[in-house]
Known about the structure:
Elements: E1 2-10, H1 14-32, E2 35-40, H2 45-51, H3 57-64, E3 68-73, H4 88-99, E4 103-109, H5 122-125, E5 129-135, E6 147-148, E7 155-156, H6 163-178, E8 183-188, H7 194-207, E9 214-219, H8 220-229, E10 236-239, H9 241-255, E11 264-266, E12 271-273, H10 292-304, H11 309-324, E13 327-328, E14 343-344, H12 347-370
Parallel strand pairs: 1-2, 1-3, 3-12, 5-10, 8-9, 8-10, 13-14
Antiparallel strand pairs: 4-5, 4-11, 6-7, 11-12
Helix pairs in contact: 1-10, 1-12, 6-7, 8-9, 10-11, 11-12
Amino acid sequence: MRLNIAILPGDGIGPEVTREAVRVLRTVAEIAGHEFRFEEAPIGGTAVDQFDTPLPPQTLEKCLSSNAVFLGAVGGPRWDNLPRAQKPETGLLQLRQALGGFANIRPAACHPALAECSPLRKDVVEGADVVVVRELLGGLYFGEPRGFRPEFTDAFNTMRYSENEVERIARVGFEAARTRRRKVTSVDKANVLETSQLWREVVNRVSRNYPDVALQHMYVDACAMHLVTNPRQFDVILAENLFGDILSDEAAAITGSLGMLASATVGGDVNLYEPIHGSAPDIAGRDIANPLGAIASAALLLRYSAKLQQEASAVEAAIGRVLDERYRTADLGRASAADSRVQPVGTAEMGSLVAQALGEIMDRRQAYHTV
Ligand code: IPM
Ligand code: MN
């Protein structure tokens, strides 16, 4: 299989976690005999520094002509006070819009070996396995009008959703539920917002095509509470853009660390894969960031863009094995500090451990298939 992958390392810890994700993809290609071509391009603050814009046209072109895009992270205090057109985050939003992927899929499951790393009680998170399906191209992020009034006395954003936008993301949510435990929790604020009333009505309508999937509606504030008190009740959480952004960070508490979460953005011309964590400028360049969210995003790339299911699950199994062997980056350190068997590792070492485990897992599978 041949695949051209645009690699956008971005800012802060973006480059170091991306390096590990690429290492794992190279390992897959080598063992399974695929040809992955990686082409790097600047985005975010790094691009602003070089080209005065967070999404240079060459970067966008490279992404549009590739089979998949992998992004590390964007943003940092150095660029926080720039006008909107030059903010690193604007580059990412423009990229998302140009690629057209409206469905952002964010799985968050509690790995058994990490149940004690969560700030939540072990008996609360054990067995939790949710996927947040976040609408990515609508709502407050893109609604017009938006802006400041002169003198900064007033600021405004617009939350707007069309029937069609809700319908297409709802379908992704129900389809995802069909591959899992067949339950959708649709999140809104229908007691206050008109956009949410429309959302609820359209989701109800779409659900009639999925009689085998249970549908539940939940207000976003209640969902935020249930996610940390009883996460096992959730299977697919279907949410508009900002609600999904917030709830997916919260869902990270189930996994033990924000550094664990992967995402895939699908539904457009080219899919985009990125860990959900930010650029973490405070720990950038110190080889302490957790690359597992990035590596798990690479697994999603294998699954959705390359349709290499076996390779994708091998990468996920390799992550699981390394965690079972008690290798931990600093963010997963908390409860493990009490466990003398824990093996603290840095970013690069974590990446090579996963690559090594992957090699063993894939070699064994290949041997099995050739017998
Ligand atoms: C995310 C991030 C982005 C978002 C930022 C960096 C624009 O928080 O992917 O969750 O809000 O979508
Ligand atoms: Mn976010």
